[in-house]
């Protein structure tokens, strides 16, 4: 045809067919170059280098053991107190130990693979997910061959040091999680709030008068006396933290049971999200919604803090409040339901 040209290059046996600027290459024109020639490593050519690499892998695994032991030691050597410096020290040294424990295993495994395990490139055809019994038996043989080539059974130093690293590495996590204590049971059903306990500003601990709460304002509140605690202060605060909000009494939707739980539009709700326990601290004054910043659970303050959006499974627990003879806001009782994540109840 007049609008086509066919050019043959016999040496490369490539056909170029031009049609409107499009070049078509024959499917069998490009040959498979194959794999590059295998290059021997120093560990393949020298027994001395092979043994040195094996020692280096073992050193990495031993370093992992040292890191795991150091992490466990640091957890107890730098206990967390009210001083933020202790939090930083505990986090720093515990993190360094865990990092060394994990990096020792990772670097050791990579160095083992790159220097001692077979590195010849191979290509294999895809097969169905399940092979015949003959193929499966062949796979077992391949696994045994891989074990033999990698030296896992033969290299006792590497094998034992790796076992040690893998055995010690989870121990810091066991201690960390074990120190969380036993199943909380009904401990989350009880907080520092009790009848007559004054509501105090967080973190100063100054009691709050109802007259000081303006319409639309929000206060972070703790039980009076919590700021002076010497022991378990953070644990008690984590359970008893409250958000105090003043609304227009006409906007409140209260059941008969809860009509006496608020005072002149002032309501108090647990600050601990019922999803996974994050602090609920974002208040939208126009919509009267409380928002948890972790997973966007949203609660309607005007309607018993019911969930209007997000993964939280139940409303925020409400703290019944009133005022004493001096006009200070006080609790009528403790929370009537457990605070915090719903999964603690399951």
TrEMBL record:
For this UniProt entry, which segments traverse the membrane? 57-80, 92-113, 162-181
**What membrane topology does this protein have?**
Multi-pass membrane protein
Assign the protein's first listed, main location to one coarse class. membrane
**Any GO CC annotation of this UniProt entry:** plasma membrane
Question: What range does the record give for the signal peptide?
Answer: none
Report the locations given in the UniProt record: Cell membrane
Keyword Flavoprotein part of the UniProt annotation: no
Disulfide bond recorded as keyword: yes
Question: Pfam families from the xrefs?
Answer: QcrA_N, Rieske
Every copy of the Rieske domain together lies at 239-330
A GO molecular-function descriptor: oxidoreductase activity
> Keywords for this entry?
2Fe-2S, Cell membrane, Disulfide bond, Electron transport, Iron, Iron-sulfur, Membrane, Metal-binding, Oxidoreductase, Respiratory chain, Transmembrane, Transmembrane helix, Transport
- What is the protein's given name? Rieske iron-sulfur protein
Q: Which organism is it from?
A: freshwater metagenome
The opening ranks of the lineage are: unclassified sequences, metagenomes, ecological metagenomes
């Amino acid at each position: 045809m007049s609008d086509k040209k066919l050019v043959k290059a016999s040496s490369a046996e490539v056909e170029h067919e031009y049609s409107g600027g499009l070049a078509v290459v024959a499917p069998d024109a490009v040959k498979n170059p194959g794999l590059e020639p295998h290059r021997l490593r120093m560990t393949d050519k020298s027994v001395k280098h092979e043994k040195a690499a094996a020692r280096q892998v073992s050193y990495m695994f031993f370093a992992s053991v040292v890191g795991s032991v150091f992490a466990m030691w640091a957890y107890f050597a730098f206990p967390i107190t009210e001083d933020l410096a202790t939090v930083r020290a505990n986090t720093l040294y515990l993190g360094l130990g865990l990092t060394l424990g994990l990096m020792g295993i990772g670097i050791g495994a990579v160095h083992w693979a790159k220097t001692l395990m077979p590195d010849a490139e191979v290509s294999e055809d895809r097969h169905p997910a399940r092979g015949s019994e003959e193929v499966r038996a062949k796979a077992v043989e391949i696994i045994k061959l891989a074990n033999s080539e990698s030296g896992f059974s033969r290299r006792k130093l590497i094998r034992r040091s790796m076992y040690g690293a893998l055995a010690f590495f989870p121990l810091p996590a066991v201690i960390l999680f074990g120190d969380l204590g036993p199943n909380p049971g009904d401990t989350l059903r009880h907080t520092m709030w009790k009848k007559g306990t004054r509501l105090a500003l967080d973190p100063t601990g100054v009691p709050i008068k109802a007259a000081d709460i303006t319409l639309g304002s929000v206060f972070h509140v703790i039980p009076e006396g919590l700021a002076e605690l010497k022991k378990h202060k953070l644990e008690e605060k984590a359970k008893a933290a409250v958000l105090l909000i003043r609304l227009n009494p006409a906007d409140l939707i209260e059941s008969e049971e809860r009509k006496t739980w608020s005072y002149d539009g002032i309501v108090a709700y647990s600050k601990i999200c019922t999803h996974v326990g994050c602090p609920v601290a974002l208040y939208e004054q126009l919509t009267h919604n409380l928002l948890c910043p972790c997973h966007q659970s949203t609660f309607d303050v005007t309607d018993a803090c019911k969930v209007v959006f997000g993964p939280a499974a139940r409303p925020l627990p409400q703290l019944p409040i009133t005022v004493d003879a001096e006009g200070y806001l006080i609790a009528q009782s403790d929370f009537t339901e457990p605070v915090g994540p719903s999964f603690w109840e399951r």
